[in-house]
Amino acid sequence: MKAEDFLSAQQKDRLVAAIKEAERNTSGEIRIHIDDTCSGNPMKRAGQVFRFLRMDRTARRNGVLIYLACKSKVFAIIGDKGINDVVSAGFWNDVKDIMTGYFRNGEFAEGLEKAVSAVGEKLKAYFPYHENDTNEQPDDISFGNPDR
What CATH number is given to the structural domain containing 37? Predict the structure, then answer.
């Protein structure tokens, strides 16, 4: 199964809507990226994708990437400096635990949606929406193996 086919069209639409809803209350940026495979460390790969998608260039350094390699069955969450400096040490593990619970039951879209919601709430707390905020990143899901 290719990364683009991992989720149904309805699931993709639901996740994009969840990203839009989460970002409505924050200046933060959330992206989901799905690869086919990840042959190495998923955190390292997430970092590569994060930079390739230019998520490290947001004005407030508050981008968050949720990365999943569907065939390899690994995932990671990476946040930029701005958000990493303010969240508790265990926050990213808490979000991963939420996702793991859903993923074990084969509910991948639901796990991703819950992760987006949890990240959005945290971004809202530390980076609330301001009237002049712009959407610095697309809300769509990215797929494939960019920059390999």
Answer: 3.10.310.50
Sheet holding 63-69, edge to edge: 74-79, 63-69, 29-35, 142-143
Does any domain span residue 148?
no
In a domain, 49, yes or no: yes
Query: Which of the four pLDDT bands, split at 50, 70 and 90, describes residue 147?
Result: low
Residue 75 within a domain: yes
Question: Is the model's pLDDT at 145 over the cut of 80?
Answer: no
- Indicate whether 106 belongs to any domain: yes
| Contacts for 130 with CB less than 8 Å, ≥ 6 apart | 27
Total-model pTM: 0.95
Q: Express each pLDDT in 78-95 by its tens digit.
A: 999 999 999 998 999 999
